[in-house]
Amino acid sequence: MQQEFIPVLIQIVIATGFAVATLIASVLLGKRAKRNQMKDSAYECGMLPIGEGQARFSVKFYLVAMLFVLFDIEVVFLYPWAVSFKRLAVDGGQLVVFFSALSFIVILFVAYLYALRKGALEWKD
């Protein structure tokens, strides 16, 4: 059984050796480069680095992003239901399965209407 792990051990040794060799090479070769003010400055796609480094986003942006993830997960839960609906309908429980998924969709639709009424999806204040 230990012989089965020899290829894995060899791969770990090679990967570790490659990582260590790369780090050592970058340290040795990196110190040879001449340093100056222009080389040490931040590179911003050819633009001078003036102003804040990070632009501020509105809270509305994050709210809409969270709502998108929430309603996108609905599809993740409905996909397995749609795939197995035919098999579940053959077993005789089609009404129970259908109404449970319908109640899930109705609850999410009510949540969507609530978010719409509260103005969570409006971009302008």
Low confidence ranges? none
Helix content: 55-70%
Provide the domain count: 2
Number of strands: 0
β-strand percent reads under 5%
List keywords for this structure.
125 residues; mainly alpha; 2 domains; 4 helices; flat
Concise overview:
The chain is mainly α and 125 residues long. The chain contains 4 helices and no strands.
Structure description:
With 125 residues, the protein is an all-alpha fold. It folds into two domains: 2-40; 59-118. Helices cover 69% and strands 0% of the residues. It has four helices and no strands. α3 packs antiparallel against α4 (94-118). The longest helix is centred in the middle third of the chain and has 32 residues, at 59-90. The mean pLDDT is 81.
